[in-house]
């Protein structure tokens, strides 16, 4: 938008008086932040209603991205950037004696997600608005986001994350758009006499779903889409309501949108979680239908105007819910309703880990959602009947929805939608060939791949301004919306000056991060060291342990040979463990205890440091990623569906140290073998081991001297404070089979780390690798990813940028 600095300053002062009746001098950062937020909203208002108006007038097909999680991060700078007024506002504020960065810190980081899946949804809505795709997010307005992590004596402690405490400046409560969601009670069907059945409900609990809308601002294109998050409230009561029963009901109802489930891998078969899922699904689908019907196009054309995307199986109840509305409220017959539903729905799978596959006990659904259970059972019955004619019984039994008294949500999602995609090429192949192979036999054409992506605007333009400016000077700024333009940087691969400038940018970022570590943790780290980063949820399959065992091996090496020729390293971890995931928490404690040991050992000086940042999340990622030299992507091959920190780190010039897992495979294809450091088992080797059962972790402990020493350290008192954890972890590796092949990959990993050490010593070689990584990262922009969803799955137009 056009905004002069002078106009901005006037607007800002005016808004401050209007909202707070304050002059600039009396105001503090909090008031200034809210003032700026309100001002941005006022700037956005016109384009927001224009965008909605245009979508209606042009009759454009709308996409609704249903996700239990949107891990947005702070929005202030992102909104300013996308409006095209970041620099104007920064300068204007500075004239007024205000530091924009100080206001940034006031905004709480809304942690409405666990990890990759939630952050992907956030990158997607940014990219969809930027790519001019008429697409909106639909989710839950949790009162409490993902817990705040504290370390107490090295143990993870969880604290509530009350992000709404001071209000959320970006949202608008839309009371007029509230809808009612029904739970419990009984339902029976009666013939209407007009050829359809009418459901009657008795004793149902009614919950009011109130939407809070936030603007999703496209980058410099005047498009403003909507993120709609639902909050659960008590419906208006009549005068006969008993006060205490009201209070009781209120607590029960409000608990639905109270808190995000803090587990990123193990679904919890809890009633409240099922309530959450149906709550936002029903509210969202009802509101879509209400909006659609205003256009008077006839319900039979729904799939031409609406696409509903299901982010993992958590919103899979969209399928029976849409069926319910089409059957019970629109009085469609089953076949037409089913046809429409399939054509409307599409589904993304994010994991192959069986423990993360949702399965709901049928009685639980029966009690909570009596009408929905009827519909699910009917979908299942017809599936078995109709497919039974075409395929053999075993195949149909293994793919049906209802089995062993449970509803298998992934099965419902596949059967009820026209598209299922994996999130990286390797992952999609594993789905087709292994995990979902029976479905692939039945519906080969539903399967497709959409490799994940990240928004370069947040993860480079905003998070790494020094790099942004360097790139702009070298190749211009078209990469903001045409990220593969970054490839033009390759022209500078032999240009010493550019490589030195790149090194200088990295050094600056490392100094900045080192200052942060010193201030927040009281720990000094040396910016000349290699900053080696592993940031992601803590999970056994991601193998933070492999990293830790290697750190211990370096520590012992330095103890025994203080003269050993190692380039100084700072190992940086950031990770939250699910509160109920004991093993992950033991690993956190062990890492913290090893950090204590190494960081305070005077023999080590600054050759080795271990930093475990507390409360890792989007805001910390934005600080760490620009300072990273090495990107640890070391999951056991086949386990990480895609990964997205791999893409963010690469985009910021870190060199990837990786197994051939998830999107690492595609990163290698784009940077070439020489610009990535690979190690470890391949997917087929892992499957081979599963098949023939010949992996014996104990042998590696017995035969590998280095490993033997390192593993013994877990149980011989070498690591003070973590004795119990050391034993448990030792046992998991040596006695109980080492499920994720940590010991098997250890040597290869250590050798890869030595290659990193050697490569880093030649600054020009290293910077050339960094440059090629940056230059090759454009293809992993979520702009391209969503453009592919738009054309290949949703059948909607987008502003497609050349790849
Ligand atoms: O989704 C992640 C994958 O592990 C990662 O490889 C991929 O890049 C990313 C985006 O596709 N999965 C993930 O983050 N999953 C969750 O956060 C999650 C959350 C809740 C539940 C399961 C998984 N749950 O069952 O409640």
From TrEMBL:
<keyword id="KW-0021">Allosteric enzyme</keyword>
<dbReference type="GO" id="GO:0030170">
    <property type="term" value="F:pyridoxal phosphate binding"/>
</dbReference>
<protein>
    <recommendedName>
        <fullName>Alpha-1,4 glucan phosphorylase</fullName>
        <ecNumber>2.4.1.1</ecNumber>
    </recommendedName>
</protein>
<dbReference type="Pfam" id="PF00343">
    <property type="entry name" value="Phosphorylase"/>
</dbReference>
<feature type="modified residue" description="N6-(pyridoxal phosphate)lysine">
    <location>
        <position position="648"/>
    </location>
</feature>
<keyword id="KW-0119">Carbohydrate metabolism</keyword>
<dbReference type="GO" id="GO:0008184">
    <property type="term" value="F:glycogen phosphorylase activity"/>
</dbReference>
<dbReference type="InterPro" id="IPR035090">
    <property type="entry name" value="Pyridoxal_P_attach_site"/>
</dbReference>
<comment type="function">
    <text>Allosteric enzyme that catalyzes the rate-limiting step in glycogen catabolism, the phosphorolytic cleavage of glycogen to produce glucose-1-phosphate, and plays a central role in maintaining cellular and organismal glucose homeostasis.</text>
</comment>
<dbReference type="InterPro" id="IPR011833">
    <property type="entry name" value="Glycg_phsphrylas"/>
</dbReference>
<keyword id="KW-0808">Transferase</keyword>
<keyword id="KW-0663">Pyridoxal phosphate</keyword>
<dbReference type="InterPro" id="IPR000811">
    <property type="entry name" value="Glyco_trans_35"/>
</dbReference>
<comment type="similarity">
    <text>Belongs to the glycogen phosphorylase family.</text>
</comment>
<comment type="function">
    <text>Phosphorylase is an important allosteric enzyme in carbohydrate metabolism. Enzymes from different sources differ in their regulatory mechanisms and in their natural substrates. However, all known phosphorylases share catalytic and structural properties.</text>
</comment>
<keyword id="KW-0963">Cytoplasm</keyword>
<dbReference type="GO" id="GO:0005980">
    <property type="term" value="P:glycogen catabolic process"/>
</dbReference>
<dbReference type="GO" id="GO:0005737">
    <property type="term" value="C:cytoplasm"/>
</dbReference>
<keyword id="KW-0328">Glycosyltransferase</keyword>
């Amino acid at each position: 938008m056009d905004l002069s600095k002078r106009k901005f300053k006037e607007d800002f002062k005016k808004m401050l008086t209007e909202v707070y009746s304050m002059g600039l001098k009396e105001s503090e950062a909090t008031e200034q932040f809210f003032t700026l937020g309100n001002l941005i909203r006022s700037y956005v208002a016109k384009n927001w209603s224009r965008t909605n108006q245009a979508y209606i007038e042009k009759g454009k097909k709308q996409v609704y991205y249903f996700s239990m999680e949107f891990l947005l991060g702070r929005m202030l700078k992102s909104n300013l950037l996308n409006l095209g007024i970041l620099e104007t506002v920064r300068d204007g504020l500075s004239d007024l004696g205000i530091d924009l960065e100080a206001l940034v810190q006031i905004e709480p980081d809304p942690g409405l997600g666990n990890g990759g899946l939630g952050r992907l949804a956030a990158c997607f809505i940014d990219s969809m608005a930027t790519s001019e795709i008429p697409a909106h997010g639909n989710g839950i307005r949790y009162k409490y986001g993902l817990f705040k992590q504290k370390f107490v004596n090295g143990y993870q402690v969880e604290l509530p994350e009350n992000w709404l405490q001071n209000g959320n400046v970006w949202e608008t409560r839309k009371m007029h758009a509230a809808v009612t969601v029904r739970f419990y009670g009984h339902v029976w069907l009666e013939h209407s006499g007009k050829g359809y059945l009418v459901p009657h409900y008795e004793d149902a609990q009614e919950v009011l779903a109130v939407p809070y809308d936030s603007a999703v601002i496209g980058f410099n294109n005047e498009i403003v889409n909507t993120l709609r998050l639902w909050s659960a409230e008590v419906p208006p009561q009549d005068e006969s309501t008993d006060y205490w029963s009201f209070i009781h009901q209120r607590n029960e109802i409000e608990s639905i949108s109270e808190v995000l489930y803090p587990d990123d891998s193990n679904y919890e078969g809890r009633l409240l979680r099922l309530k959450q899922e149906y709550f936002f699904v029903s509210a969202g689908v009802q509101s879509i239908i209400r909006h659609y019907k205003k256009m008077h196009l006839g319900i039979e054309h729904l799939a031409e105007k609406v696409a509903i995307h299901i982010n993992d199986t958590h919103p899979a109840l969209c399928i029976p819910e849409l069926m319910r509305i089409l059957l019970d409220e629109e009085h469609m017959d089953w076949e037409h309703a089913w046809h429409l539903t399939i054509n409307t729905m599409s589904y993304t799978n994010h994991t192959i880990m069986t423990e993360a596959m949702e399965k709901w006990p049928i009685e639980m659904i029966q009690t909570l959602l009596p009408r929905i259970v009827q519909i699910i059972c009917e979908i299942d019955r017809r599936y078995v009947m109709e497919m039974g004619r075409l395929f053999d019984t075993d195949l149909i039994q293994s793919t049906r929805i209802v089995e062993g008294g449970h509803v298998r949500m992934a099965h419902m999602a596949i059967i009820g939608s026209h598209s299922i995609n994996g999130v990286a090429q390797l992952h999609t192949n594993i789905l087709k060939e292994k995990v979902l192979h029976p479905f692939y036999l039945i519906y080969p054409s539903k399967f497709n791949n959409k490799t994940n992506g990240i928004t370069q605007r947040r993860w480079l333009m905003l998070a790494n301004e020094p790099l942004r400016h360097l790139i702009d000077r070298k190749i211009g700024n078209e990469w903001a919306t045409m990220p593969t333009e970054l490839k033009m940087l390759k022209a500078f691969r032999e240009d010493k000056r550019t490589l030195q400038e790149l090194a200088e940018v990295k050094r600056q970022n490392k100094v900045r991060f080192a200052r942060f570590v010193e201030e927040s943790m009281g720990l000094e780290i040396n910016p000349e060291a290699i900053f080696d980063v592993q940031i992601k949820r803590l999970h056994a399959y991601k193998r933070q342990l492999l990293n830790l065992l290697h750190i211990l091996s370096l520590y012992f090496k330095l103890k025994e040979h203080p003269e050993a020729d190692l380039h100084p390293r700072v190992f940086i971890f950031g990770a939250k463990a699910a509160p109920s995931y004991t093993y992950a928490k033991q690993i956190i404690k062990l890492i913290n205890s090893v950090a204590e040991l190494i960081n305070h050992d005077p023999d080590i000086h600054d050759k080795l440091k271990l930093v475990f940042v507390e409360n890792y999340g989007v805001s910390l990622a934005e600080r760490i990623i620009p300072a990273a030299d090495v990107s640890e992507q070391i999951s056991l091959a086949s386990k990480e569906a895609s990964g997205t920190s791999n893409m963010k780190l690469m985009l910021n010039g870190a060199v990837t140290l990786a197994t051939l897992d998830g999107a690492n495979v595609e990163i290698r294809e784009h940077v070439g073998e020489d610009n990535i450091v690979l190690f470890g088992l391949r997917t087929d080797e892992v499957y081979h081991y599963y098949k023939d059962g010949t992996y014996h972790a104990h042998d590696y402990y017995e035969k590998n001297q280095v490993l033997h020493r390192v593993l013994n350290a877990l149980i011989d008192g070498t690591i003070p404070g973590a004795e119990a954890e050391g034993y448990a972890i030792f046992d998991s590796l040596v006695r109980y089979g080492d499920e994720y092949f940590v010991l098997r990959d250890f040597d290869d990993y250590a050798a890869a780390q030595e290659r990193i050490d050697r490569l880093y010593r030649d600054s020009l070689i290293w910077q050339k690798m960094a440059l090629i990584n940056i230059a090759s990262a454009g293809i992993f922009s979520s702009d391209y990813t969503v453009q592919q969803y738009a054309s290949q799955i949703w059948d909607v137009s987008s502003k497609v940028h050349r790849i």
